Amino acid sequence: MPITAEQLRNLTTGLSAAYQKGLGAAKPQFKLIATVLPSTTSAEDYGFLGSWPAIKEWVGDRQLAKLTEHGYTIQNKKFESSITVAKDKVEDDQIGQYGLMAETIGQDVSLFPEKLCFEMLCAGFTTLCYDGQNFFDTDHPMAEGVVSNIIGNIATDTGEPWFLLDTSRPLKPVVFQNRKDFEFKALDDM
Q1: Fewer C-beta neighbours within 10 Å, C or N terminus of the chain?
Q2: Distance separating alpha carbons of residues 102 and 96, to the nearest angstrom
Q3: pLDDT of 93-114, one tens digit each?
Q4: What is the DSSP letter of 180?
Q5: Smallest Cα–Cα separation from 25: which of 106, 117, 142?
């Protein structure tokens, strides 16, 4: 017996509702450590990072800060998750497990930025940041000297890393660049 357009509509509506339920069920925490910035192109340049002038007493003429431009670019990547619903399952009206899959994908989509942000934070010992140094490093160039953002000796310390982050500022330690939100899309070849 052929699948009808009404069956496909009902399937799509049910899976979409399950997906939305999953989106709403998750409670992501990534915004606690990440600044979310929109993106409208394949890559965004953040040359201004590291150029924050300090507040100082105004004596005489205004002292305009010469901002240092860093060549720091974040490339956008595409991500997806898809399932296939078997024709036999639709014909036999055995599609309940697909709702669970769609709900799980909705949760995964909601938590995906968190996965990326926390993985990036953990990779900070080996990943370059805007100044060409590893994110966690002993000699970040700052003003007229260098600054370390590491406590201890990464060469000899053992165990899991832990992080003390200042997340009170508008620019948080991690940047989550969002070009396009995930969307539920039904693709059928009827």
Answers
A1: N
A2: 10
A3: 888 899 999 999 999 999 999 9
A4: -
A5: 106
